[in-house]
Design brief:
The chain has helices spanning 22-31, 48-60, 86-89, 99-106, 125-133, 164-174, 190-201, 233-245, 261-269, 308-317, 334-341, 371-383, 394-397, 403-409, and strands at residues 2-7, 13-17, 38-42, 63-66, 72-75, 83-84, 108-112, 137-141, 144-148, 156-158, 180-184, 205-207, 213-217, 225-228, 249-253, 273-276, 280-284, 294-296, 321-325, 345-349, 352-356, 365-367, 387-391, 413-418. It is α/β, with parallel strands linked by helices and 429 residues long. The chain starts with a strand and ends in an 11-residue tail after the last strand. 53% of the residues are buried. Bound molecules: ligand EPZ. Residues 23, 26, 94, 120, 122-127, 161, 163-166, 191, 305-306, 328-329, 371-372, 399 line the site of ligand EPZ.
């Protein structure tokens, strides 16, 4: 295992390029399973979760070819096993996204139940109920979802909770169903709309993607296509948050400001200067201590839960008392105890953290627990004085492409070292 060793106290400054969105890439890759032709995907980020998906596809007999500049060609005509075993699914919950396409295309699929993860129980009951509404026969045996359907039939289905992957799974399944499917209380996240654009390029008939009601008219088959994945709005927001936390000035290029307006509104509320162009965003917080902010997470277009941990770092050094409320997941505050080790003053009140800003955090050894918590500890280490070791950084590699290179490009003093490296070994830039 590895750690990041960070020498803090440096304001970050400069420009980086946003990568393709992890949470758009994963469903688009799953959409290739609807085809017996090739789906070519551009702007794919180089992430552990993409590698895991490639391993899962290889297990199924699906052919994945890496093209130049991180494009992928996925050919599911060679599939031999429409199944996703536990040893692969347990490392990436989003593997559940293969269930809908496999069932719709082949009439059967055996997919391991993803199980929970650090941030919550993460059930998939809505995914399964939606497929049953479309006529699937579903049994769960020894932790495996065994789904069967001669041919799915279009249905009207209202989802009890707003679930992004649930919406995506059912939308994909509906593209090959017999008749029209209407999904109500659907997730409005931009990644759902990006997937719908890809499915439409494949010949699907979809209306309302990106709104809470999506209507899909099933086809007998879909055809090969090419799709470019949209920029990662969470990666963009993460780097802009780092500008405020380190009192720096960062521009993120090749992104889409329209995808993260709730985030940029909150960044402006800290007192930082926020500028936007057609495909870039800049946050300038040079020399300023951020004002306290109040944040409550909710489904898109409101404030993203995936940005919550990062904003806790701003709150930890802000001038005043901030409140951070997590209203989507039941256990997404594991970064709080680690930030307290760095001097943050945090008082939990139910699903809210009341954070009293301190003038400065101090470096300390800390432990990463999940993807977004991990990156918040890296940002805190860069903002803090002294040295911070962040362990279990495999969490970060799942969702941030070339993270230490991008941070070093902005001036961070950060090194990836073996976990066994003794504390105090010199951090040489
Ligand atoms: C997607 O997860 C994202 N992952 C998550 O990003 C993100 O945090 C989340 O949406 C919310 O925006 C991908 O897109 C791959 P959920 P998703 O488990 O859709 C309830 C990251 O950091 N629910 O559906 O899988 C559930 O309990 C990751 O990139 C049910 O009750 O989220 C929760 O309260 C973390 N039954 C809510 O819905 C179900 O069948 C959303 O959770 C499904 C969900």
């Amino acid at each position: 295992m590895e750690l990041f060793r960070i020498e803090g106290g440096t304001p970050l400054g400069g420009e980086i390029r946003a990568s393709g969105a992890k949470n758009a890439t994963l469903p688009v890759m799953a959409a290739a399973l609807l085809l017996d032709e090739t789906l070519t995907i551009d702007n794919v980020p180089h992430l552990e979760d993409v590698t895991t998906t490639n391993v899962l596809f290889a297990h199924m007999g699906v052919t994945v070819t890496m093209l130049d500049n991180m494009a992928l060609a996925v050919d599911a005509s060679t599939i031999t096993r429409p199944e996703a075993p536990y040893e692969l699914v347990k490392t990436m919950r989003a593997s559940i996204l293969v269930l809908g396409p496999l069932l719709a295309r082949h009439g059967y699929a055996d997919v391991s139940l993803p199980g929970g993860c650090a941030i919550g129980t993460r059930p998939v009951d809505i995914h399964l109920a939606g497929l049953e509404a479309m006529g699937a026969e579903i049994k769960v045996e020894q932790g495996t979802i065994k789904a069967r359907a001669h041919r799915l039939v279009g249905a009207r289905f209202a989802m009890e909770s707003v679930t992004v992957t649930g919406t995506e799974n059912l939308m994909m399944a509906a593209t090959l169903a017999d008749g029209v499917t209407v999904l109500e209380n659907a997730a409005c996240e931009p990644e759902v709309a990006d997937l719908a654009r890809c499915l439409t390029a494949m010949g699907a008939e979809i209306e309302g993607a990106g709104t809470s009601t999506i209507r899909i008219r099933g086809q007998s088959r879909l055809t090969g296509a090419r799709h470019r994945v949209q920029p990662d709005r969470i990666e963009t927001g993460t780097f802009l948050t780092a500008a405020v936390a380190t009192r720096g000035d960062i521009t993120v290029a090749h992104t889409d400001p329209r995808l993260l307006e709730a985030t940029t509104e909150k960044l402006a509320a800290t007192g930082a200067r926020v500028d936007a162009g057609n495909d870039w965003l800049r946050v300038d917080a040079t020399g300023m201590r951020p004002q306290a902010i109040n944040v409550r997470t909710a489904p898109y277009p409101r404030f993203a839960t995936d940005m919550q941990a990062q904003f806790c770092v701003i709150a930890a050094i802000a001038d005043g008392v901030s409140t951070i409320t997590e209203a989507v997941f039941e256990n997404r505050f594991m970064h709080a105890a680690e930030l307290e080790r760095m001097g943050a003053l945090i008082r939990p009140e139910g699903n809210t953290l009341v954070i009293t800003g301190q003038p400065q955090l101090t470096g300390a050894p800390v432990m990463a627990t999940d993807l977004r918590a991990s990156i918040s500890l890296v940002i805190a280490g860069i903002a803090a004085s002294g040295t911070t070791d962040v362990r279990r950084i495999y969490h970060i590699d799942r969702g941030y492409e070339c993270i230490e290179e991008k941070l070093a490009q902005l001036g961070a003093n950060i090194q990836r070292l073996p976990d066994s490296t003794p504390i105090g070994s010199a951090v040489t830039s």
